[in-house]
Amino acid sequence: MTERPSDVAVGTELPAFVTRLTRADLVRYAGASGDFNPIHWSDRVATSVGLPGVIAHGMLTMGVAARAVTTWTGDPTALLEYHVRFGRPVVVPDDDQGAEVTVRGKVGALLDDGRARVDLTVTTEGEKVLSLARAIVRLQ
After folding, report:
1. Which strands form 99-111's sheet, in the order they lie side by side?
2. Which residues are in the MaoC-like domain (predicted)?
3. Which residues contact 17 (CB under 8 A, 6 or more apart)?
């Protein structure tokens, strides 16, 4: 954590959180979640339904963004509420690099009882993949 959450103000920016998702990550997530939909592992199936290729599970992308918030707070239990809309998929190429996902956040409001609303921007290849992504966190 770069700054104590109790010292934040409206406009405080979270450190950028950058991670890569590979096909191996998708396989591990499918096993953990039980979501074995072939759009998450088969290019043939993904393209046959109109996708540009294999895509990451939406809930995996959502989890990556939540991890950015809990890394900043330093306490996973400080994440009290979390909402997103899925805007576009994260396409994960079949290579060793995978897809880079970047999460940026900014404190949008200070709420009652030591809570704050964090507004998130989640992108891959410069395109937003989650919209209306917001978290309510306990600062103290």
Report:
1. 17-21, 99-111, 115-124, 127-138, 79-86
2. 20-109
3. 64, 67, 68, 71, 102, 103, 104
Q: How many Cα atoms within 13 Å fall on the side-chain side of residue 76? A: 5
- Mind listing the pLDDT tens digit for each residue in 41-82? 999 999 999 999 999 999 999 999 999 999 999 999 999 999
Residue 2, H or E segment: none
CATH number, domain with residue 129: 3.10.129.10
Residue 37 maps to a domain: no
Q: Is 67 inside a domain boundary?
A: yes
Report the C-alpha gap between 34 and 99 in whole angstroms.
Answer: 22
Q: Does residue 31 form part of some domain?
A: no
Domain that holds residue 69: 8-20+56-138
At residue 4, does pLDDT exceed 50?
Answer: no
Q: What is the pLDDT of residues 103-117, one digit of tens each?
A: 999 999 999 899 999
